[in-house]
Design goal:
Strand order of the largest sheet: 3-2-1-4-5-6
Structural class: alpha/beta
Strand content: 5-15%
Largest sheet: 6 strands, parallel
Radius of gyration: 23 Å
Number of helices: 18
Bound molecules: nicotinamide-adenine-dinucleotide
Length: 440
């Protein structure tokens, strides 16, 4: 099949590479020429395990191409995936200008039947807006070329994106006509040979499904974070509680980890957008999700608060080592990362910080431009040099079993603030290190 992917970010590039890898002919379009240049030069603009090799392999096989040429992209694919960003607008609703611009570009140039697929996370009703935008552009040209609009939300996780895409739990397709459903079925057939994972439904339900999934996951996290704060006060250990409830199959173990708050490019904006859609389009206040968001905002300040409680509100002259910048392990994505809040809290209190992250330090520099009190280290050990204490914000695997003797020797005061509950408190404390985790 010939496929155009519009938007070559975390979702677009992974989707494009994976579709090419199963034999399709894929053209990835982006409006950012610097991204396309990196790709044309054989690099990739993001960090995602396994993606570089997959892109290389498919470029070499002649199945994967990149362009900034909107007209060429509109002509190329019978299936046109819209995978552009849907960042939060000032009022919290999803900003649809990139999606609508992509739709208009298709309408401006298409000359034959297209299946236009919304892969971006978009509010209920977006498919109607996409359809109207394309129809409007076709009308301006005085043509009536046929097209279908499909909702096919993406559920991949950064850090495990290729595996998620190639072995999905489910493929949700919101669709109104048989022709488009047939195209989607054919497109996804190679990655669901074992059994059918395609769930075909009406478009609005598909659009809502994506928000519902992220909202549920965010709810589990905020729920556990609140209980963790309670456990701390009551002298309980949230990790024991997690095991105790996760063993119930109705609850399950996944997404029950207490921590320093969720970040990333999806949960914060999707929870916010769903609350906003409910309020504006349906006059309904989503009380649970409003609380989920508020609990998370507060949770992102918990680590900084613990440091201030321990070292005082005035942190001038204090220096901290910080391990982990990315919003989670195995990605360089810094969007809404908790590290940003923690660093800001420390800087505001007058401290200096040296951070280390295996892949996200370049991205972090864009988040804190010209911040002289934030420096970066070449290794996790180097970050400890001259630090009063260590703060852990991201659960990278390489942080899971550190040399505690080295940590103790390097820190001025042997204190670890662990925002991801990576260690056994008894073990760390037995080594003479003060250990402050979340809910333990
Ligand atoms: N990142 C994730 O883990 C993830 C997972 C599932 C769903 N999503 C959703 O997928 C969508 C994309 O997310 P992302 O993280 O890949 O975003 P991203 O910011 O990494 O990539 C979006 C890309 O679209 C490009 N773009 C914007 N307007 C364009 C246009 N008119 N034509 C061509 N390119 C254009 C941008 O330059 C950018 O490179 C969002 O709606 C997001 O919520 C993301």
């Amino acid at each position: 099949m010939k496929i155009t992917v519009i938007g070559t970010g975390y979702v677009g590039l992974v989707s494009g590479a994976c579709f090419a890898d199963v034999g399709n002919d894929v053209l990835c379009l982006d409006v950012d020429p610097s991204k396309i240049k990196i790709l044309e030069d054989g690099g990739i603009p993001i960090y995602e395990p396994g993606l570089q090799e997959m892109v290389k392999r498919n470029v070499a096989a002649g199945r994967l191409h990149f362009t900034t040429d909107v007209e060429k992209a509109a002509h190329f694919g019978t299936v046109q995936f819209i995978a552009v960003g849907t960042p939060p607008d000032e009022d919290g609703s999803a900003d649809m200008k990139y999606v609508i611009a992509a739709a208009r570009n298709i309408g401006k140039y298409m000359t034959d039947y297209k299946v236009v697929v919304d892969k971006s996370t978009v509010p209920v009703g977006t498919a109607d807006r996409v359809k109207a935008a394309i129809a409007d552009e076709l009308a301006k040209r005085g043509v009536s070329t046929p097209f279908s609009v499909v909702s096919n939300p993406e559920f991949l996780k950064e850090g495990a994106a290729i595996d998620d895409f190639m072995r999905p739990d489910r493929i949700v397709v919101g669709c109104e006509d048989e022709q488009a459903a047939l195209n989607m079925r054919a497109l996804y057939a190679p990655i669901q040979r074992n059994h059918d994972r395609l769930i075909v439904m009406d478009i609005r339900s598909a659009e809502l499904t994506k928000y519902a999934a992220n909202a549920m996951l965010a709810t589990r996290i905020s729920f556990m974070n609140e209980l963790a704060n309670l456990a701390e006060k009551l002298g309980a250990d949230i990790e024991n509680v997690r095991k105790g409830i996760g063993s119930d199959p109705r609850i399950g173990y996944d997404f029950l980890y207490a921590g320093a708050g969720y970040g990333g490019s999806c949960f914060p904006k999707d929870v916010q957008a769903l609350v906003k859609t409910a309020q504006d389009d349906a006059g309904i206040t989503l009380q649970v999700l409003t609380a989920v968001e508020a609990a998370n905002d507060a949770q992102k300040r918990v680590l900084g608060g613990k440091v201030i409680k321990r070292f005082g509100a005035d942190l001038k002259g204090k220096h901290f080592a910080l391990w982990g910048l990315a919003f989670k392990a195995n990605t360089d994505d810094m969007r809404k990362a908790t590290s940003r809040d923690v660093i800001q809290d420390l800087l505001d209190a007058g401290a200096t910080v040296t951070a280390y992250d295996p892949v996200a330090m370049k991205e972090a520099q864009h988040c804190f431009p010209n911040e002289a009190r934030l420096t970066y280290a070449e290794s996790q050990t180097a970050a400890l040099e001259g630090a009063d204490a260590l703060i852990i914000v991201t659960e990278w695997r390489e942080f899971r079993s550190p040399d505690f003797d080295t940590i103790k020797a390097k820190l001025k005061q042997p204190v670890i603030f662990d925002g991801r509950n990576l260690y056994d408190p008894k073990l760390v404390r037995s080594m003479g290190i003060e250990y402050q985790a979340i809910g333990r």
